[in-house]
Design goal:
0% helix; four-stranded antiparallel beta sheet; seven-stranded mixed beta sheet; single chain; 118 residues; globular; mainly beta
């Protein structure tokens, strides 16, 4: 069964850091594109970052310089390192594959809550 599971969310103060993990079962992440998305209350889901099968990385302008996407092929995991977090980063974060298109045709995890608050 194909499945994605996110973890690593939590409550953090502004300026803090979190590392989100996306674990896959049933397929291999390093031969697919993997995207991170987020959805804040009352807002539409937005793309945050993407790592393609050839290792190219993309970031939304709002997170450039603060977030870093990476992949561990041996563990079949994709990570999102989030630094200098801001209250506006508060959202449920999802990973999706095998594309970064963010459509219902992709596989999605259940999401992990990130709350940035003092």
């Amino acid at each position: 069964q194909l499945q994605l599971v996110e973890s690593g969310g939590g409550l953090v103060q502004p300026g803090g850091s979190l590392r989100l993990s996306c674990a896959a079962s049933g397929f291999t992440l390093n031969i697919n594109d993997v995207g991170w998305f987020r959805q804040a209350p009352g807002k539409e889901r937005e793309g945050v970052s993407c790592i393609t099968s050839d290792g190219t990385k993309y970031y939304a302008d709002s997170v450039k310089g603060r977030f870093t996407i990476s992949r561990d092929n041996a563990k079949n995991m994709v990570y999102l390192q989030m630094n200098s977090l801001k209250p506006e980063d508060t959202a449920v974060y999802y990973c999706a594959a095998p594309t970064c298109s963010g459509t219902l045709n992709d596989y999605w995890g259940q999401g992990t809550q990130v709350t940035v608050s003092s």
